[in-house]
Amino acid sequence: MRAQADAQARAAALRIEYDDLKGYKNLVDGLLTSLQESPAHHGKLADDTLPTGALGQGFPEADKLYEAYKTVHSELQKLSKGLAEQIEGLGIAVQTANGSYADVDEEQKRRMVVIAKQAHDHYVEERDPYAEKKSDSAQQPNATKKGAPLG
What we know:
Blueprint: H1 2-37, H2 42-46, H3 60-96, H4 106-122, H5 131-136
């Protein structure tokens, strides 16, 4: 009875985390949509919305601003894709939280492995605000460093 209550509590906690993550992804997608619909969208800029030389000749700041825009846009797209994968993985975990790993079908197992590998491959320790704390604390038994074999 106690084990069942614990399993239900863990499943509820996963559900809350899943909903929070889904809400955050919606926020990122909204930012991406706003950026794509704005006059600053790269397609509108590339279609000569601003004629050549409109900002002046030999104006390197305009080029730098456009490069910064492309970087932000690209990073938002990567973030959205990564969040979608994490949400999918968490969704699978929520669905299977009350059962055992043996009850998970092979396709779900394969998908979870792919999601974990993609998350591992895209991890950038310099961007992780908790990386220093992680290295100071005891490593988890299955934890791997970037570049270490996964799986």
